[in-house]
Amino acid sequence: MAKMWVMFFTSLLLVSAMNFYAVIREPDLIDIDDIHEYPRETVKVEGVLTSYVIDPYGEQADRIDLQVREIEGHSMVEVRWLVDKDHPVPPVGTLVTVEGEVSEWNGRIWLASNGYGAIQCKQNGGGTGCMNIEYESLQLVEVAMNPSKWVNESIRVDGYLSESMNPDVAYHSLSLMDNPAYGNADHLLYMQIEGRPSDWVESGSHVEVTGWIQYDQRSLRYRLLVQALAVDVLNAGTTVLLDWDIDPQSLSYEVGKLVQIEASVETEESGWTLVGPNVGDRLCMLPSSSDLENVTVGMSTVWTGRLIWSTDESAICLDRGYDAEVRNPIRNSVDAIPLAEVASDPFRYVGSAFTFDGWVTGTISNDYPKGYVGDAETYFDRTTQLRIELIGGFEGYIEVGQSIRFNATVLWSESSGRVILEARSWTLGDLPYPSQLGWGDGYETWKWEIGNRVSIMGVVVMDDEGLQWIERSGTSERLCLLGDGTETSQQATAGEPIQWIGRLETSENFVENEMRFCLNVL
Questions:
Q1: Does domain 138-235 have CATH number 2.40.50.140?
Q2: 120-129: per-residue pLDDT in tens?
Q3: Whole-structure pTM over 0.85, yes or no?
């Protein structure tokens, strides 16, 4: 019995000693990059205070959110400090030591710190004050505290990009953040960048940008206007790791970013597909030339590429280096002058004739043979658009999205201040498939297709006045049909809704004082 009591008191003493050690021991000092390896543990990090916001949600809460960056690096950590909101915050640029619990929720990681002693500034060698770093550029918090101070002035701001910058795009609309992760950022400055960067700049990249602060009255917010060459990349953003368990709709937020995903590959005549571990886990893949030579069916690995919206596939795809020249092969034909070259230096070409390749950006009719030609089939891929005038007659229409090779003289119109390509001979590509009209899209969507070839599914009926209409089955929605009168008999033969293809037009009903859409199938 005595031995049992000795064992009991010994175990009690050991438990007490362990609890006491857990209370008095100093938390481990870790690198900010390694914080994800310590979930639900209390740790310490050292860094530079770059941003903070007091009572972030305006709830009169005793909470201050801070952003702390590596002393000699670019990694950031968000700190949620539960302390009296009137408690003084160290100045921006102060070297601090932060103690807190590593918290994680929905993919976001931060340090939860409690009490006055959780954040301490690092003392100078003599202990006479806090060490700090003098930044050459402004931090976002400094702009946020008094934006009107910087209006209409050129400033240099430090931050992280919310989206990638594409070298093929001349205009970018994005945010400058005080944290590379959007969900952990405390300040976001709306930024408009004009011009093309020399190469891809990834989202999350640490940058310094020089631009002008302006107040946008229309959207009631401040914005930073920047030229692409004024974006100085200090550190490239990291690759985004995709997980098959995430909501597929959330993939749209990663479009344009460099990503990685673990999957096996399937190859079919219709295209390549990445397959995940669960039923239905599939992602479109655009293979590189190396993939075409080396990848085998069923091969499983971590695939790296850029997530894009593919107009050819009508889906989000992983672009493994699928060359833009392959997507738009007509752009750089051997004997054709790129439209972008003329746009960049028009007076070099004015007065001479050249061969051009492009796509018609809007339907051109034979009774008004003027329009525009671009260097890509779709609006989102297009970077250059020039005026074209076709000299000589042609029948029918040249459709929007139709490829065209033409010989034209480059002219300069002083009255309109623009380049005009006067074409006297041309060759058209295949007729593009018509745009699909949706019954529920409404006027605001349909008006952009006026004059274009479109298709719509419906049932043709004839009213008491002999007018033909395409109706949406089971509803009162209808579209007037202009044809040769045989369409109702075609409908009777089919006995089910038919896909009707024609040109979308408008007509006026003077009796009822209304304008209506019509599909002309003649």
A1: yes
A2: 988 876 666 7
A3: no
